[in-house]
Amino acid sequence: MEGPKEPKIITDKNEMREWSRSMRAQGKTIGLVPTMGFLHQGHLSLLEEAHKHTQVFVVSIYVNPGQFSPNEDLSTYPSDFNGDIKKLMSVPGGVDVVFHPHNLYDYGMGSVGNSEGGIERDGVVSCVEDGGLGHETWVRVERLEKGLCGKSRPIFFRGVATIVTKLFNIVEPDVAVFGKKDYQQWRIITRMVRDLDFSIKIIGSDIAREKDGLAMSSRNVHLSPDEREKALSINRSLSKAKAAAGMGQMNSRDLINTVIESVQEAGGKIDYAEIVDQESLKAVEKITSPVVFCIAAWFGKVRLIDNIEISG
Amino acid sequence: MEGPKEPKIITDKNEMREWSRSMRAQGKTIGLVPTMGFLHQGHLSLLEEAHKHTQVFVVSIYVNPGQFSPNEDLSTYPSDFNGDIKKLMSVPGGVDVVFHPHNLYDYGMGSVGNSEGGIERDGVVSCVEDGGLGHETWVRVERLEKGLCGKSRPIFFRGVATIVTKLFNIVEPDVAVFGKKDYQQWRIITRMVRDLDFSIKIIGSDIAREKDGLAMSSRNVHLSPDEREKALSINRSLSKAKAAAGMGQMNSRDLINTVIESVQEAGGKIDYAEIVDQESLKAVEKITSPVVFCIAAWFGKVRLIDNIEISG
């Protein structure tokens, strides 16, 4: 038996592209799983999904400043690069390349990190409206980015779509895998790929859950044992709503109210709870076509998101 | 001697990409010249420029609805496809492919052309904010798109950056050539390519001029003989301004005023006249580094643009 495969670590974007092109020249198809690191089993399940579709695999590990607002905690975002590599080596078949760039918004023009550039002091990328040579190009999926998580994080999906475009142009994958836990993100990337004619197949991978049903998330470690127990109300009430719909309860408002009550009774604070069309993410009043029930709720200081698809 | 080379005409975007990939697999580099058709000598000079850089050549002919406002005349934009092909065949070395898609915003989902889609009745693409499955992804170069032509045409460069992204993802060229007559467009595309990590070299090609100095434009045919004579004031006064700067006259305001007076005396109506940094397109008060003097002016019903680089 072969030992665990150690991935090649690439930090330079040109070297990354050259690697991909050399693989393509050998007739190999390339899979990409973009991450911000601090990997858990949910990320590894994306890689397992990727293994079904392509022959070689790239995992990117890059905390993208472009998707953080100045008031969000970019500087304290957790990381554990060595632990990530070990986890990736544990996946059957492993991963060929870990792409781990230092700064994808530094264009080598001395324009980053000063007042003329696109990066402010705290590392948050901003569009400088009135001067400078910093980063200023943004990809927006203008309708899908607005609802659900986009309401409380207005520049989040602009940052996500832009960094994914950059990663696509650097890695040039045939397939990219995104988790359906971030349902809106997955739909936004899928729409972006269609609208901008990227030749990349986007795979949505099912939510990985703990044994008790909690959706896996880097944030789960911040939950106290008590909060963690209470947070199970999210998945439990979503599952009940799906079962009720299966029994003919098709009124969205009633289903939503039941879920909100359950989560609030458990001590959660609702950010949003919506039943939306799976494709357009538009709210629906009655479930007559495939929908997804999306929820975001706070337990203590931790904001959790989850969702469940209902075929309608 | 070989006769003129007849280009292969491709209308399907997947066929276009397959052609490019087959060329790349043969080790050939690919040049792209994006146009909206109704070609003149200025376009052909872009192709001649492309011939210096790559081995095979694609000219796209596509009138992009995404860059027209509802009040602009998309429906009457001139076209002469057969004439264009003849002109392309006259260029030494010719062109390998003419990419001539029907509609790059139709994603085959029945979502275009109805109220739910991204295309309105008059064919203008709009971002539908509150519904539908139509096109909704836009690339914006947020600072560079604002000044000069962006002032009077606020969605123009959004449409340009988006269609060029689409064409890049379909044709996958190594080099793309843009005319420096559309100076702002060239700078925007160059910045976009940098910011989004496209692996494409952008070439700015010098302005092609008539013998009397008038910058070549599809719009020149709409000028009356009298207007055409008067329009020569644009290039003449720009050249004088450059000469004055070469003699030490470095105050932008003075140079601009002289040009405005000359063009107005000739009967032109100024849209804008600005001296800006060649890279950032920010207005400069004193010429101490490379600048470009950009002007847009109306002669009768025809809006002409022109510019001249001044090394500073």
From TrEMBL, chains A, B:
Record EC number: 6.3.2.1
GO molecular function: ATP binding; pantoate-beta-alanine ligase activity
Domain of life, source organism: Eukaryota
UniProt KW keywords: ATP-binding, Cytoplasm, Ligase, Nucleotide-binding, Pantothenate biosynthesis
Chief subcellular location: cytoplasm
Record flagged with keyword Nucleotide-binding: yes
A single GO BP: pantothenate biosynthetic process
SUPFAM superfamilies per the UniProt record, alphabetical: Nucleotidylyl transferase
Associated pathway: Cofactor biosynthesis; (R)-pantothenate biosynthesis; (R)-pantothenate from (R)-pantoate and beta-alanine: step 1/1
Catalytic activity: (R)-pantoate + beta-alanine + ATP = (R)-pantothenate + AMP + diphosphate + H(+)
UniProt subcellular location: Cytoplasm
GO cellular component: cytosol
Pfam name, any one: Pantoate_ligase
Protein family: Belongs to the pantothenate synthetase family.
Assembly description: Homodimer.
PANTHER family: CYTIDYLATE KINASE/PANTOATE-BETA-ALANINE LIGASE, PANTOATE--BETA-ALANINE LIGASE
Name assigned to this protein: Pantoate--beta-alanine ligase
Natural source organism: Daucus carota subsp. sativus (Carrot)
Phylogenetic lineage: Eukaryota, Viridiplantae, Streptophyta, Embryophyta, Tracheophyta
